[in-house]
Amino acid sequence: MKTKVCIVGLGYWGSILVQKFDNLKNVELTVCDKDQDKILKIIKTYQDIKTFSNYKAVLNSDVDAVVLAVNPLSTHYTMAKQALQHKKDVWLEKPMTATSKEAEELISLAKENKVLLHVDHTFEYSPHVQYIKKVLDSGELGNILYVSMDRLNLGLYQQDYNVIWDLCPHDFSILNYWFGEPYEITPIMRCSSFGMADISELHISYDDFFADIRVSWRHPEKVRKTIIIGTKKTLIYDDVGANKIMIHDIKVDYNYGDYKYKNKKNILAEYYDEWEPIQLEAKHFVTCVDKRQPTLTPGESGLKVMRLLENANKEC
Q1: Nearest alpha carbon to residue 214 among 258, 127, 153
Q2: What residue ranges define each of the domains in the chain, with the CATH number in brackets?
Q3: What DSSP character marks residue 124?
Q4: Which end of the chain is more exposed for a tag (fewer CB within 10 A), N or C?
Q5: CA-closest candidate to residue 128, choices 301, 248, 278, 244
Q6: Are 213 and 163 in contact (CB under 8 A)?
């Protein structure tokens, strides 16, 4: 028996999700959007797909799960709440809600109705991010000293939230997955155009190391790079580069106040699974719907990111 999933919202990301869920053979897929032009565009590619133009009709249907890829952000809470009240499992785009209070309410409602609340933190499903987690847990890099994360692009301006809310959820969820929650986050730079922050830099403190995140909608080139510096080795994760993961054996040896700088040959990471994270995430979500088990990124995961976003968005 196939799992019945409805993609609600057929914008840029929603259209990508339609493709990924359609690839799953155990899914009966439907879509919903009030914009008929978007509906017609989807029908041209997926001729047999069932469509809805009214969200209430989706809620009253026999759909098992709704995937909410909707804008503006202010609609996330209301639409997710309605779905949970109708006992539908919910996939909710990031950022999860406009406030952590709204996120807390959705988590409680999901538990009350015994349904799943999943937050789309795509990169936690990346084989490369998961591989790095194993490297970190193994101690191969030594004690972590510093993490640098750049997420830059000539990006699309959002309607009702700034670059921090748009791009930082990715890096916050990755950091939480790798290291747990930080104890402090400080915005140290913000540039705004048209009244909307579109470039920002954040400083994040952990007990034994710190991290810096830079995000931008105004960068001329797409950059998705993370550098993790340890006492034994340094790892570079370049999500848009040819070599996704490089580990450099770099260390400083001290000898009576002097030091010697050693840079051995680069070690190419052995793990190169090219499965798209979003495809893996879609498969995982459907499996969890079928088996009635929490996903890797449940509502609680989204709430942790929400709290970091609220702290990061404080005025410098």
Answers
A1: 153
A2: 3-121+277-297 (3.40.50.720), 123-274 (3.30.360.10)
A3: G
A4: N
A5: 244
A6: no
